[in-house]
Amino acid sequence: MEKIPPILYAEDNENDVELTLTAFKQCKLSNRIDVVNDGIQVLDYLQYNGKYQNREKEKPVLILLDIKMPKLDGIQALKIIKSDEELKTIPVVMLTSSAMESDLVKSYNLGVNAYVVKPVDYDDFIEAVKKIGSFWAIVNKTV
Amino acid sequence: MQKLCAMIENDPTYEALLQENLALRNELSQKKTELNRYQILTSKVSDLIWILNLQGQFTYVSPSIERLRGFTAAEVYKQTINDVLTPASARKALQLLAETLDEEAKGIKKDVFGCYELEQTCKDGSTVWTEVIISANRDEQGNLLEFIGVSRNIGERIKIQEELNKSEERYRLISEVSSDYVFSTMVLSDGSFELNWVSGAFENITGFTFEEYKAKGGWHASIHPDDLKKEDEDLLNLFGNRAIKSEIRTLNKRGEVVWVQVFAHPLWDSDRNALKGIYGAVRNITERKITEQKLSKANNLLQAVLDASSDAITMTNRKGEFQACNKILLHRWGKTREEIIGFSTSKVLPPSVFQNRVKIINECIEARRGITFTDTYDEKWFENTIEPIVEADGTIENVAMFSRDITLLKNTLDNLKKSEEKFAKAFRCSPDPILITFLNEGKIVETNDSFIALSGLTKDECIGKTTIDIHLWIISEQRNQFTSLLQKNGRVQNFECDFNFKGNVRNCLVSAEVISLNEEEYILGVIHDITERKIAELKLENERKRLRTLIESIPDLVWLKDHNGVYILCNPQFELLFGAKEKDIIGKTDYDFVDAPIADFFREKDRKAMMAGKPSINTEELVFAGNGYKGLFETIKTPMYDVEGHLMGILGISRDITELNELNQHLEKKVEERTLQLEDANKDLESFAYSISHDLRAPLRHIDGFSKILKDAISESSDETNRYFRKISDSVIQMGRMIDDLLKFSRLGRKPIQTTEVDLNTLVKNVINQFEPEITSRKIEMKVGKLPVIHGDSGLLQMVFENLISNAIKFTSKKEKAIIEIGYYKDTDQKNTIFVKDNGAGFDMAYANKLFGVFQRLHTQSEFEGTGIGLANVKQIIHKHGGTITAKGETNNGATFFITL
């Protein structure tokens, strides 16, 4: 039986985390959502470092990155991910409240796969999450 | 009887007697016959025969006495001599009688006493001249018995004689003056001639007397040696019994040649059939001959003259046929002299020309006077003069026609006339006033139109007056100078003086010359008004001075070079650069004052400017040779062109920008600093804005999220609670929008405008397309007019129209039929004004000023949603474009927004 890979979700704000997870619940995705709170944790997770030393060796099917995070921000993390031979094939979607042009440009230049701005309206948010989930986790084929 | 007769016949004495008797009888008979004869004679003869006895009584008068004197014979017998003759003749007769009787007594016996002319008286009282021949009748002894006379009426004869005398006298006179003489010559038996007699002017003609002539040898000897042959011919004719008429030369006594005309008739002896004499007349025709020769010469001369004439001369008759002509005419019609007679030009001239000529010929003949006319054919013009030729009898059959080819003359005259007209026109129309005056006294003869116009006088006011009279001269000294120059040189060129025209002083140049026409001397003067020029010159001089002052006062270096780099002028500042005075710089080049590399640099810049045809600016460091000053200069080199567009030279102006430069540099540094500061500030602001919006959004999201979750978590939800949740959600969304708008607004404020050419037509079309779904579903009528192409930031402008159109759509949502109109027009200042008009909710004009404020709204959210940032954005963008936006509206009656760019 094929193991269903997890989705890595990086977000520092716990409220946002809660909302997003609730939204995912409504999607009824089978994938497990692993949450980290900053950029370092992202890398630790992906690189089986720190407290994730013993993590089961599996690449997440999707990485959802918020930009504004302490320590290493989303874009920095993205950069590292996309320059890592092992990790760069994992689809990364920025999920952020920043609509700044510069962030977009930087992200795409770094090879981000998608960039989604978190809508203020919760219904819209749920809709967006569903779409992200269903596409990236189900429709999209990964390596 | 017979016997007797026979006997008598045979008897000699009887015979003799018989003979004697017979003889006597014969004699008697004879005498009777004679008497009878005499009686018949005397009675018949017209002459009077009379017998006068010694006593002086008439014993017999013949019957013709009655005819002669009117008296009968019977009456005459009673008359004495005194009765018969007039007193004068009677005296004469009686004297004769007395003398005769005396002579008789002396024994002188005459038979005929003589022939006397005696005047006899007639019965009617008149007298009659008679010629009386008186004879003596004597007896056998010779004694005078009686006088027998024959008287002839010589009255007629006397008359005739008198007339003859007169005519003889006349003839004598005539013959004396006559150039003729008549002659008769005898031809002697030996064939030689002897001049018989001559009459008339023989001596005059020959110079010889009759004797001398004969002695010299007569006719033959007087013939001119050259004409002897002719004489022979003449004689031959005479000897042939033919009269001759010939002209021959003779030599007179002095040896001079005398031409004579000889009429000679032969006197023919028909018995011997030979010439026996010549009679005739000789006329001195020397003069005539001379005249003839002269005439012939004259004729030849005339013909030569006629032939030499360039006119065609003919003698033509009424029909236009030539009778005679000269060479030119022959030449003109290509005929010989023989062919020309009777030749008519009717076939060679155009019919109208020929007919006209014939008409005029006849007119000339009728009027008996000459006519001159011109006609033309073959593109040639002829002047023809026709003169009637009057014959000796006064009739005119022919005319003489002189035809002159005046084509050239006419052309010349036409040209001359045209040229004259041209000149007259030139004179009249010349823009310079021209005057012609007499040399003496200077009275004006002619003025042209320009003079009239300039002087304000009429022609009449000028002609006949002098230039002094019309107050032309202002300064008499000038007039004197002018006059003396003219007198000295005969002409004056460009004499500068002042003239009074219409009371104004005009500076003029006068050029004048003395000319002679028709033996009169005139002055032709042309006046050139140079007042304007003088004024212009003065202006120019002032300008020049001004310019000079300007150039000299300018603190900048100013100079002018020609296209070869040779200095034409410079100002005092420039002098410092080269350390030389302007007069030393003019005519030299840069190479004379600075080192070659620097001079090259200068020339290069000059060339650049000349090539470009427009000013070239460069900065350069200059070192003043004059005072060692060193500085940075901005030099402008401008190529200068004259009015015809030719390059005159390069004008250079150098400004000392050293200080300015330093200042600039200083400023720039400052600016750089400030810019950096500003950029930093901007960056900070940007991050700040971003942070704010980003950070502010998160809690909003949470509120909305959790309130929704809460809503779902509540087991029972009433309308009330649902309403509350909805309110929360709406508020959150509103805040989100406001944050976005604020962010956009601030970003907009910081964003620099990028101007391109924006075609508003496509831009607006694109914007409208964005709203297509709503436009179609609501059936909104979009009226879009032609919009201009303007300079602006296409992105920003798009925002403007998005805002305005979205507003229009929004605020017409409550109207059944929404009409949105977009267009443009040019306002009074020629600025583009674009308008967006709708027929929607409109607004109260009292709050117009609030429209464009940030977050300012004139309606509630429930009426029309929105944050109130749209128009603020639009205003900001329009202001960034340097334009203005205004709005006009009426509550519930639409609004129009006017953008002026």
Topology:
The complex is a heterodimer of chains A (143) and B (901).
Chain A: E1 7-10, H1 14-27, E2 33-36, H2 39-47, E3 62-65, H3 74-83, E4 92-96, H4 101-109, E5 114-117, H5 122-139
Parallel strand pairs in A: 1-2, 1-3, 3-4, 4-5
Chain B: H1 2-10, H2 12-44, E1 48-53, E2 58-61, H3 64-69, H4 73-77, H5 81-84, H6 87-106, E3 112-121, E4 127-138, E5 144-153, H7 155-177, E6 180-187, E7 193-198, H8 202-206, H9 210-216, H10 218-222, H11 228-239, E8 244-251, E9 257-269, E10 274-284, H12 286-308, E11 312-317, E12 322-325, H13 327-333, H14 337-340, H15 351-367, E13 371-377, E14 380-390, E15 396-405, H16 407-429, E16 434-438, E17 444-447, H17 449-455, H18 459-462, H19 476-489, E18 491-501, E19 504-517, E20 520-529, H20 531-553, E21 557-562, E22 567-570, H21 572-578, H22 582-585, H23 596-612, E23 616-623, E24 630-641, E25 647-656, H24 658-713, H25 719-750, E26 756-759, H26 760-770, H27 772-778, E27 781-784, E28 789-792, H28 794-811, E29 819-826, E30 832-838, H29 870-880, E31 884-889, E32 895-900
Parallel strand pairs in B: 27-29
Antiparallel strand pairs in B: 1-2, 1-5, 3-4, 4-5, 6-7, 6-10, 8-9, 9-10, 11-12, 11-15, 13-14, 14-15, 16-17, 16-20, 18-19, 19-20, 21-22, 21-25, 23-24, 24-25, 26-28, 29-30, 30-32, 31-32
Helix pairs in contact in B: 24-25, 25-29, 26-28, 28-29
